[in-house]
């Protein structure tokens, strides 16, 4: 082999060696590719930001989300929907997945959330408590009892002794809030984080019974995750100080 050929071979071997040593997912064990996260609807704003930050810190990794009611997401996972991570709005909905042994490890609680009443801007009906939601003619929307925000609302209403007949039951908290934002309802019982995310399009009313209906949010990697390394890296990021700072900014409570 002449000198030029030997030099070309050495350059090729060096480039192959560098490629083998590189890690497209960053230096934390993530392997790049796509990580699919099924997350409760109330996590949409905060998880979208966390996903963007995660992608910046893990070149070659893309985070895709399916935001929906936790109950619907759990049903999808049990039915075989492909996903890497499940972040639920209550331990009860996470249990639907863990009971089927579909998580790789025990879920970790990463945040907590409290309820609030969402009203039109200016609170035109003067709503100040849960009992006020029982006023005749007031159009109130609740989450369905099968989803975490609905189960929590029922608990809070029972604690307040408020007998409310809702105009509709919604399948996730964002749908309930949208009814108020579109003036299709006078009030909705939602999470405080959703009131904050809605900005000046709604007003929020706190009530003491919310302390008796706080929801824990668990997260877990799924047993059949197509991208287990990236899933583990994303969960580690969510539970890191940076992740908790983003969640706290959105109004979530520390676990």
UniProtKB/TrEMBL annotation:
Matches recorded under Pfam families: SBP_bac_11
Keyword Amino-acid biosynthesis in record: no
Signal peptide: 1-20
Coiled-coil zones: none
Keywords: Metal-binding, Signal
Entry keyword annotation includes DNA-binding: no
InterPro entries: ModA, ModA/WtpA
Entry superkingdom: Bacteria
SUPFAM superfamilies (UniProt xref): Periplasmic binding protein-like II
Entry similarity comment: Belongs to the bacterial solute-binding protein ModA family.
Protein name (Swiss-Prot/TrEMBL): Molybdate ABC transporter substrate-binding protein
Source organism phylogeny: Bacteria, Bacillati, Actinomycetota, Actinomycetes, Kitasatosporales
